[in-house]
Amino acid sequence: MQISETDKIQTTQPKILVLGATGGTGRLIVSQAVARGYDVTVLVRSAEKARDLKGAKLIVGDARDETALRQALKGRDAVVSALGTPANPFREVTLLSTATRALVSAMKAERVSRLVCITGMGAGNSVGHGGFVFDNLIFPLLLRKVYADKDRQEAIVRDSGLDWVLVRPSVLNDKSGRGTLRVLTDLTDVRGGSISREDVAMFVLDQLRGDVWLHRSPLITW
């Protein structure tokens, strides 16, 4: 009987690549993945910033560099992208889309099919569901250019032909995780919300197994 790549991910501990591993959510993804017994590689621009990522193999490189990505993808089963970029209302943002475009190309070249990518509430059809302050102040004044790039990023993922999940967290906080969350695709009554980075990391890693949210863009919140 032939075993598919998806079956391999489901029946063995995944070998994963994490991008954005030195960010607040990325660090928790790495630590939780290591705690689950996963084989974790991270691609980071600074080994110094990643020195406390215990249990992960470090590869130094730029996430926009397809050559570096292909090196980091060797032997991997799946990718988690927790890439982020600082809010800057005065400069165009292209990091997320540029890196994602290079990642998709590298994943296809290395025959890695599973991608779980974090974007955020306000991307795609979740725009306008962040609550009054977020939608009318934070988003237009600080995050408009960032979210324009998140939209480009999501479009690249959707058109990739990969086995993808786009995860859209509500406003992130650093509280302890609850271990439970709401997963929503019908946003009719959603107006704001928050969620801990810890619970986001948990949900993201869960998407490496099973296909419940495959090719979908769930918003996750408390």
Most strands sheet: 8 strands, mixed
Low-pLDDT runs: 1-9
Query: CATH topology, anyone?
Result: Rossmann fold
Mean pLDDT: 94
Shape: globular
Please characterize this protein's 3D structure:
This protein is an alpha/beta fold and 222 residues long. It has a single domain, classed as NAD(P)-binding Rossmann-like Domain (Rossmann fold). Helices cover 36% and strands 20% of the residues. It contains six helices and ten strands, in the order H-E-H-E-E-H-E-H-E-H-E-E-E-E-H-E. It has helices at 5-11, 24-35, 66-73, 95-109, 132-158, 197-206, and strands at residues 15-19, 39-44, 56-60, 78-81, 114-118, 163-169, 171-173, 182-184, 194-196, 219-221. The protein has an eight-stranded mixed β-sheet with strand order 3-2-1-4-5-6-10-8, with helices on both faces. The chain has a two-stranded parallel ribbon with strand order 7-9. Strand 4 (78-81), helix 4 and strand 5 form a beta-alpha-beta unit. Helix 2 (24-35) packs across helix 6 (197-206). It starts with a helix and ends with a strand. Residues 1-9 have low confidence and may be disordered.
Throw out a few tags for this protein.
222 residues; alpha/beta; Rossmann fold; two-stranded parallel ribbon; 10 strands; 36% helix; disordered N terminus
What's this, in brief?
By secondary structure, the protein is an alpha/beta fold. Helices cover 36% and strands 20% of the residues. It contains 6 helices and 10 strands, in the order αβαββαβαβαββββαβ.
